[in-house]
Design a protein that fits this description.
Layout: E1 7-8, H1 11-21, E2 23-27, H2 32-51, E3 56-58, E4 62-65, H3 73-79, H4 82-92, E5 97-106, E6 132-138, E7 150-151, E8 174-175, E9 182-187, E10 192-193, E11 204-212, H5 222-225, H6 228-232, H7 236-242
Parallel strand pairs: 1-2
Antiparallel strand pairs: 2-9, 3-4, 4-5, 5-11, 6-9, 6-11, 7-8, 7-10
Helix pairs in contact: 1-4
Bound molecules: 2-oxoglutaric acid.
GO molecular function: 2-oxoglutarate-dependent dioxygenase activity; iron ion binding
InterPro entries: Phytyl_CoA_dOase-like
Pfam family, one: PhyH
Length: 259
């Protein structure tokens, strides 16, 4: 048991948590050595972007590292992770797409983020299912002190974002904690935020692998933003996730219907 949620290796149980709470926690979908490799690569990238002044720094101590598909083959591996993809299919249906992959590093002094669901781009009314869903790969232990992602369980069922004018942006949230090696999968309608990092010297490294239904526009345009060599070596699953496949014979055509 964590502060909130239950870490499980049983995907039927995880699907029940997604339905009830809007998130689930899955245990080591990859061996610990892979998480270590991810953490090392991300630390190297974040440091290099700080050094060459290209780092995206915000909220008083936090850093985003964008476009990870171009920044190491290990990131290609995690977007295709079998366990996460099974849960994404449950949330987003057949032939869902990769929307983006980037890291969010919560650093000492980093502020709590505004409370939000991920599908704020979608106009109301929302249908009774998510358009998008996210996964947070915990590369460090996520604790309340170091800025674990905070949520309000069950808000995915409200079918709307918080009403900020009515003060709902200030409703108390709870941290979703877990040891490094845990992945939180969450419904795009769930109200959540990055926690404040109240440590003196500990970074919280997390990678957000974000997916969308096959007919929703991807957050990052893969044909413009993803390097040619990544497309060239893409597996059949990766090609589908990037958006190379035609969906239901209708979307993604290049010069008419396939014969
Ligand atoms: O970093 C986190 O804990 C959550 C990030 C988040 O909510 C977002 O990027 O939309």
């Amino acid at each position: 048991m964590t502060a909130l949620g239950t870490i499980t290796g049983n995907y039927e149980e995880a699907k029940a948590h997604l339905r009830e709470w809007g998130f689930c926690l899955i245990e080591n979908p990859l061996p610990p050595a892979k998480f270590k490799e991810l953490a090392e690569r991300l630390t190297e990238l974040a440091e290099a972007e700080r050094q060459d002044n290209s780092a995206f720094l915000y909220d008083g101590g936090n850093q985003r590292v964008f476009g990870l598909l171009n920044k190491g083959a290990i990131f290609e591996e995690i977007v295709q992770n079998e366990a996460v993809c099974e849960l994404m299919e449950e949330l987003l249906g057949y032939n869902f797409l990769l929307s983006s992959i980037h890291a969010n590093i919560a650093g000492p002094g980093g502020a709590r983020m505004a409370l939000h669901p991920d599908q704020t781009f979608a106009r109301m009314p929302w249908p009774p299912y998510p358009f998008v869903a996210n996964s947070m790969w915990m590369l460090d232990d996520f604790t309340e002190e170091n800025g674990a992602t905070r949520v309000i369980p069950g808000t995915h069922l409200l079918g709307r974002p918080p009403d900020y004018a009515a003060g709902e942006g200030d409703i108390e949230t709870q941290p979703v904690c877990g040891p490094a090696g845990t992945v939180m999968v969450f419904d795009g309608r769930l109200w959540h935020q990055t926690g404040a990092n109240r440590t003196k010297d500990r970074l919280r490294h997390g990678i957000l692998v974000y997916y969308c239904r096959a007919y929703i526009r991807q957050q990052e345009n893969p044909f413009v933003a993803v390097e040619k060599d990544v497309h060239d070596r893409a597996t059949p699953l990766m090609r589908r996730l990037l958006g190379w496949e035609i969906y239901q014979g209708a979307l993604g055509q290049t010069g008419g219907l396939p014969t």
